[in-house]
Amino acid sequence: MERPLVLVAEDQPLILLEVEEVLVGAGFEVETAADGQSAMSAIARHHSQLRGLVTDVRLGQGPNGWDVARHARELTPMVAVVYMTGDSDYEWVAYGVPNSQLIHKPFAHAQLITALTSLLNQAENTEG
Amino acid sequence: MERPLVLVAEDQPLILLEVEEVLVGAGFEVETAADGQSAMSAIARHHSQLRGLVTDVRLGQGPNGWDVARHARELTPMVAVVYMTGDSDYEWVAYGVPNSQLIHKPFAHAQLITALTSLLNQAENTEG
Amino acid sequence: MERPLVLVAEDQPLILLEVEEVLVGAGFEVETAADGQSAMSAIARHHSQLRGLVTDVRLGQGPNGWDVARHARELTPMVAVVYMTGDSDYEWVAYGVPNSQLIHKPFAHAQLITALTSLLNQAENTEG
Amino acid sequence: MERPLVLVAEDQPLILLEVEEVLVGAGFEVETAADGQSAMSAIARHHSQLRGLVTDVRLGQGPNGWDVARHARELTPMVAVVYMTGDSDYEWVAYGVPNSQLIHKPFAHAQLITALTSLLNQAENTEG
Amino acid sequence: MERPLVLVAEDQPLILLEVEEVLVGAGFEVETAADGQSAMSAIARHHSQLRGLVTDVRLGQGPNGWDVARHARELTPMVAVVYMTGDSDYEWVAYGVPNSQLIHKPFAHAQLITALTSLLNQAENTEG
Amino acid sequence: MERPLVLVAEDQPLILLEVEEVLVGAGFEVETAADGQSAMSAIARHHSQLRGLVTDVRLGQGPNGWDVARHARELTPMVAVVYMTGDSDYEWVAYGVPNSQLIHKPFAHAQLITALTSLLNQAENTEG
């Protein structure tokens, strides 16, 4: 079968690689972006196929994870959004998008898969 | 009993009055704001008591409902947020805050009460 | 404000009247149907404005509540559906529609309001 | 219509009266108990008709709200449980029963109604 | 440990095989059916052990996925139901069963696992 | 990445081993306890790092699974709790903790992973 497309935005190369492997193993096709600007470009290129976004909140210079997710939702309103963070989640309640999920580092890879697939399944049953 | 405090931000006076009456009848104490700037000030004054925010998305000149809700969550992370709108909700998925509710005009007043009280009750059971 | 339209289908006149009063008091505009055939006609006439359906499972001769709800969803995919019943709900899991609510008689009128408004609010936040 | 039975346990007479009025106004039949021991007896007498329990966590001498709810669930496994408290809810996560709701004083009476009716409706749709 | 039994109904042999492998890998025992009539027979034979049904909506000649799921729920009221489809989901809101999940092709295999296991876990916590 | 810590309490050695393997494969760090008393001690030692508890309801002599989970929540209010049982779940509704999950033996290992990760993700999004 074809595979649904997910974009991963993360500025730490080892975590980016690990998340990519986990998502490929779960049956997704994965695009990666190493900073916020690359993530913005990838969204512009792939938005019509994009099903999910997994993004670190901190992405170095340029747009952060809150910006990237907002832009993804502007172009793809139903895209599933999972934020990864090492910080407190006080910011998420103010800067996150609706129907998104925040997971804290360190997390088990199964937490990431359940977060992403639950949001995707929820979106499918309510497109009505 | 004392009553939990809710701020209503709405630039149409008749709707503001109607929403205030509905919320008072449901057992809330209500503050009102007729535009975005007044809403911002009311949040600054009352944020330590604020339990809920009911805001129109369009608020005339100045900050809109998306701005007001984001500011409320910055000062009061657990505040319940209900947006009222007459437009499409494509904007909500990009500009709304997490764990908020959008209701379309025209709505039954019981929809507003259920939206606000469900969010309040959900917040209480997860403060852990 | 204008009011959202709900159709009530119930073959017991006293219960029909009581449900109508409860819904009007909650801020809805209400159409009524005293049997399944009238409900089918009302759906055909009003489907473009219809926001909710409250139906008894048993409706005397002709279409029953399961049929009526299925027809409403064919014409209005996002319509909120609440079934009322005096029987076991083993039938609901096989004959009900997705994202519907079953409430047993006797129920408190606030149960009906919460069932209907929760489904309406849930639909609004996921139209994306 | 007949009305579903709810037991209210609360040792402050004014709050007991207020909660009783709110529940009767929402369409429930209400039994009251002014302390934990009376609540235990009322559960023993009424458990076959009991649909909901609204209990203060502190009930003076004798059994507290945690004990009362546990006993209600032993005799009536599907009973809806709402706890009222003026304290922190750190205790609820350890001593509350599953699928229950905690609401903090001061609360709007509509919060209580939504808490109770949501739990009742949820129970009905999953008895399958 | 013993394994819970899931029936997969799918008329495309390669997809049937892939779904079977995914479910076996997740810890399920799997029965397969290549058309609607075989699925009906398998349900009749296994309904007392059946925990889940994963079915394509289109099954060639004979009963379709909507019919198969309705029949499964008649014999096994708590069975978890996941529909797979390549079409729009307008039909699901009218013809699906309550508490079911629709997933669109192409889906990641982890979406299928999360859909099925979430429904199974939800059923377990509400048998009360 | 570091891995989140989960405690497994189970008095049947083969099931304990199987559950441990499943959780390690899903990305968790696992501590094990073969009876209720050991589980109590492990909670006392690890409560500041503990993210999840997976416990059999029956644990031989000493504290049972209901006791162990209550103690874990006293020390770690946000800990995710999954109970495993071979019995009816009538006891869970009276003796389980809020926001916990009960799964029946036999279960697919993916059910356990989804139960645990859903609870963990839910906790993260509501710490606000």
From TrEMBL, chains A, B, C, D, E, F:
SUPFAM superfamilies: CheY-like. The modification 4-aspartylphosphate is found at residue 56. Keywords: Phosphoprotein. It comes from the Bacteria. The lineage of its organism: Bacteria, Pseudomonadati, Pseudomonadota, Alphaproteobacteria, Hyphomicrobiales. This is Response regulator. Residues 5-120 form the Response regulatory domain. InterPro entries: Bact_response_regulator, CheY-like_superfamily, Sig_transdc_resp-reg_receiver. It comes from Bosea eneae.
